Amino acid sequence: MKNLRDSDIEEMFSRSSGPGGQHVNKVSTAVTLRHVPTGLSVTVSDSRSQAMNRETARRRLLQKINEAAEAKKLEQLAEASRERRRKAKRSRGTKAKLVESKRRRSETKKMRGKVA
């Protein structure tokens, strides 16, 4: 897990909803964090405390960034594997079968010609 730099994060606060009574109606406890380089964002309003929500949001954002990086890495590995398979040469046996089927097809087509 890598750490988040404060300069890469945009913080926004808004009023929360749900249980908490007058406190959540008056105080901006919901925290939205946006990671500027990746564009990923997380909104947390689990707690009545803004500080706790901020902490939870940082953890969730870090987790989301790591998952996105892992998915990108797996996709690159899959792409490399597909490319490797695409470029692989045919085995001697496979090539022989292919040539034989082409030869048979050619003979079939020659039979369609005009009768002399």
Order of helices and strands: EHEEHH
Amount of helix: 40-55%
Query: Rg to the nearest angstrom?
Result: 31 Å
Major sheet attributes: 3 strands, antiparallel
Write the layout of secondary structure elements.
Layout: E1 9-14, H1 22-26, E2 30-35, E3 40-44, H2 50-87, H3 92-110
Antiparallel strand pairs: 1-2, 2-3
Structure description:
This protein has helices at 22-26, 50-87, 92-110, and strands at residues 9-14, 30-35, 40-44. It is an alpha+beta fold and 116 residues long. The chain has a single domain (6-107), classed as Double Stranded RNA Binding Domain, CATH 3.30.160.20. Helix content is 53%, strand content 15%. A hairpin with a 4-residue loop joins β2 (30-35) and β3. It has a three-stranded antiparallel β-sheet with strand order 1-2-3, with helices on one face. The protein has three helices and three strands, in the order βαββαα. The longest helix is centred in the middle third of the chain and has 38 residues, at 50-87.
